[in-house]
């Protein structure tokens, strides 16, 4: 058959919040059933594909007509229930999964881990506790893919995500950007301002080392982490990586050696 479906456009990809914590949210990229239907119509024609369901819609079989063999070629997969409209949800999910088997949207599996820190989205307590008795969190922000690119192997190599305007009166804003790094390390245009990916890296290192965000920002004479330049970000990450884990420092204070001086002063531990 020699069939190859085109890659998804940014407008055809949705963002779903996967996890929420006090520190931020992680996102997943997905497609809806209408995208699959449109691409099937566009590629093979509306009269040359069909779908059927079994096991109370849990399984879906998508069949394409092979003109050379004069027969239907089928691929099947199983879906899972959604939280709303149980039967419709599982039918839609099994259809989308069957289309993944045909290659429609398979490039989404190459998406990077997408983390949006709480400074770039509104996270609040949900009023419920998790299985460990700790407070749960929720986020009602909406996100969209504003740009996406692929390499010659159909892997995602460029991705920009915006947070949509919210009830707090904040306008659309880029909160995640995946930067492509050339193999020779040349021709890379560094961002003037840090996006969510870089801020996330700093947050993880501050958490690991126990260093105070306030003291780090003070050393660079800025009030907000978003105001750090890229050079300052690299300098901060180099210094943080030389510091041991906070737990080890508490056990062995002598490990907190004065090797991370910045303008003559040590970064202090995070205030509890």
What is the tally of beta strands?
Answer: 11
The helical percent reads 25-40%
Total of DSSP H or I helical runs spanning 4+ residues: 6
Query: Biggest sheet, open or closed, and with what strands and sense?
Result: 3 strands, antiparallel
Poorly predicted sequence stretches spanning 5 or more consecutive residues: 180-189, 254-266
Widest sheet: strand ordering: 1-2-6
Task: Describe the 3D structure.
The chain is of the alpha+beta class. The protein folds into 3 domains: 111 residues, no CATH class; 73 residues; 83 residues, no CATH class. Helix content is 25%, strand content 27%. The chain is built from 6 helices and 11 strands. The protein has a 3-stranded antiparallel β-sheet. Strands 3-4-5 form a 3-stranded antiparallel β-sheet. It starts with 13 loop residues before the first strand and ends in a 21-residue tail after the last helix. About 8% of the residues have low confidence.
Keywords:
single chain; about 270 residues; alpha+beta; 3 domains; three-stranded antiparallel sheet; about 25% helix; about 25% strand; elongated
């Amino acid at each position: 058959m020699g069939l190859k479906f085109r890659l998804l456009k940014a407008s055809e990809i949705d963002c779903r919040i996967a996890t929420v914590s006090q520190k931020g949210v992680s996102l997943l990229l997905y497609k809806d059933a209408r995208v699959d239907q449109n691409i099937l119509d566009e590629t093979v024609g509306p009269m040359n594909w069909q779908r059927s369901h079994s096991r109370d819609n849990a399984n879906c079989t998508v069949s394409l007509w092979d003109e050379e063999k004069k027969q239907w070629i089928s691929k099947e997969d199983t879906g899972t229930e959604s939280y709303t409209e149980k039967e419709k949800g599982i039918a839609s999910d099994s259809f989308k999964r069957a289309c993944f088997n045909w290659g429609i949207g398979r490039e989404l599996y190459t998406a990077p881990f997408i983390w949006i820190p709480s400074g770039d989205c509104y996270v609040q307590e949900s009023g419920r506790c998790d299985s460990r008795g700790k407070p749960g969190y929720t986020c009602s922000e909406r996100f969209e893919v504003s740009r996406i690119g692929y390499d010659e192997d159909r892997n995602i190599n460029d991705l920009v995500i915006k947070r949509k305007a919210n009830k707090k009166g904040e306008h659309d804003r880029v909160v995640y950007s995946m930067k492509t790094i050339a193999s020779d390390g040349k021709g890379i245009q560094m961002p003037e301002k840090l996006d969510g990916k870089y801020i996330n890296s700093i947050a993880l290192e501050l958490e690991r080392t126990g260093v105070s965000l306030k003291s780090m920002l003070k050393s660079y004479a800025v009030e907000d982490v978003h105001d750090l330049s890229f050079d300052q970000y690299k300098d901060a990450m180099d210094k943080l990586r030389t510091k041991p884990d906070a737990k080890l420092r508490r056990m062995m204070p002598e490990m907190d050696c004065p090797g991370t001086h910045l303008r003559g002063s040590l970064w202090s531990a995070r205030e509890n």
